[in-house]
Design a protein that fits this description.
globular, three-stranded antiparallel sheet, 32% helix, alpha+beta
């Protein structure tokens, strides 16, 4: 899902990122960032776990201003973050979802992608979707997210953070499932003005009503 950036790809109290969970040095990389920050080889169109500063400069002027303040104006001296592993962002089954808590802090968890059918409808109604999402309370969202999350570990680069993959594994891999996303989308759709988001709400109800028929087909741990 491509939601406009607050930090990362965010709307209201949510932010979605691409994660590199490559196993290295007895642990895991854990770097996550917006998809538009990921380094891409222009000729081969291959993506790598590394922040691509030319892309950041084009797509996020705010981040560039912060980098000037934090690390100076010489881009050659900016941090070279990432393990360099090849990744394919759009094929990764899990992302990192950040949620803003009641105290203003951010918590991170793993999440599957938003179901394609819902994502297609949301993309057609982005303006109304943004307005509705801003009305959702944290209590409503936290009622359908995994019980275990972890504090966000910000790095010295705007938009880049680190996820403790081993902690996630030790906690039983709590993951926001497709059903969890559908519950969240249903909550947001209910906040819409008029009938613009009614198709999204109806689809959510339909998908949730049919989830009992899927049985064990969902191999990713569910929060429901």
């Amino acid at each position: 899902m491509s939601w406009p950036a607050v930090h990362g790809t965010a709307v209201g109290n949510f932010a979605m990122y691409e994660l590199c969970d490559r196993a290295i040095d007895g642990g895991h990389c854990g770097l996550y960032m917006p998809g538009i920050f990921i380094k891409v080889h222009e000729r081969s169109w291959k993506f790598y776990c590394q922040i691509h500063w030319p892309a950041v400069c084009v797509s996020d002027p705010g981040a560039v201003s912060l980098m000037h303040e934090m690390h100076g104006t010489d881009k050659d001296c900016w941090p070279n973050l990432g393990c360099g592993a090849r990744i394919v962002p759009w094929k990764q089954p899990l992302k990192v979802l950040e949620i803003r808590m009641n105290n203003g802090s951010w918590q991170a968890m793993r999440a599957v992608r938003v179901p394609d059918r819902l994502d297609a409808l949301i993309q057609k109604n982005m303006f109304e979707w943004h307005r509705a999402a801003d009305k959702v309370t944290l209590e409503e969202i936290q009622s359908v997210v995994p019980l275990r999350s972890q504090a966000v570990h910000r790095l010295t680069v705007p938009g880049a953070s680190w996820f403790d993959v081993q902690e996630w594994i030790n906690n039983g891999k709590p993951t926001l499932s497709a059903d969890g996303w559908t519950e969240i989308c249903k909550i947001i759709a209910q906040k819409g003005d008029g009938s613009a988001l009614a198709p999204i709400y109806d689809l959510c109800c339909q998908m949730l009503a049919g989830r009992g028929n899927r049985g064990s087909q969902n191999k990713i741990p569910s929060v429901r």
